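fyi for ur records
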Amino acid sequence: MEILNYAFMQRALIAALIVGITAPAIGIYLVQRRQSLMGDGIGHVALTGVGLGFLINSSSAWAGPVWIATFVAIAGSVAMELIRWYGKTRGDLALAMLFYGGMAGGVMLMNLSDAGSNANLSTYLFGSITTVSAQDMTAICVLAALVLAITVGLRRQLFAVCQDEEFARVTGLPVRLLNLLIAVTAAVTVTVAMRVVGLLLVSALMVIPVAAAQQISRSFAVTFALAVAIGVGVTLTGTATSYYVDVPSGATIVLFAIAVFILFTLLATPLARKRARAAAGGADGCTLEVPGGRTPADDVRV
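which gave:
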């Protein structure tokens, strides 16, 4: 295939594959907790890290925009979780200030740096998968391995916390620690995916494949596997389409994800009717015949 003849497209497809796996893997827990927009908020905060990375402009691999964005996003996610615990009635205002401050700080730092520009800003906001470098690939692979280790290795504990915090606390699980772990993992995922779909669109890739899978699946395990399959499918298809049609990769991937969600929604209604008929048929097969009349043997003497 022509697309595989270029090193930058090889890196792009590998990055798309990784993001297609990791984003739904953590997104399923966010959807379960009704925090679907958390990724969007973390993306706003991570932009400050990107701007700080360009401002420092260090030759060190650990001081690049991806790594610094990761550290800033983790700090922002921890702050968001603390606000959720202690914010009470003013929590929404504090979160709004955190989100908008993160976005404004990123734009300001990017313009103050010598290496930054509006083109660089657009790359991180909306994604530019063809510009993924070998250094970016190292960061993406390391961070993605961390995300998968947590989301798969601790799936039972994380599911219990997302399903019912009170029940998880009664069973002895460290609820607050697990909540922080989910927030930090979501922050890492945002920085993994920002070069593929962009900071403003990353939340869509974390949520839409999960929402699509929930239309036709009932169990957590099936939903998890199907959401990851959808994520991989739309990221690879969107990346290839962006190469051949010359359109933005991030927007293409998200639109493909929305199309899959619509398709699964249309399939959900007839599938639900089929399940209902099957359940009704099973109920008809489990009937109990009651004798029409009594006999002397039916009498019980005490």
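The CA atoms of residues 212 and 261 lie 4 Å apart. thats all i got for now
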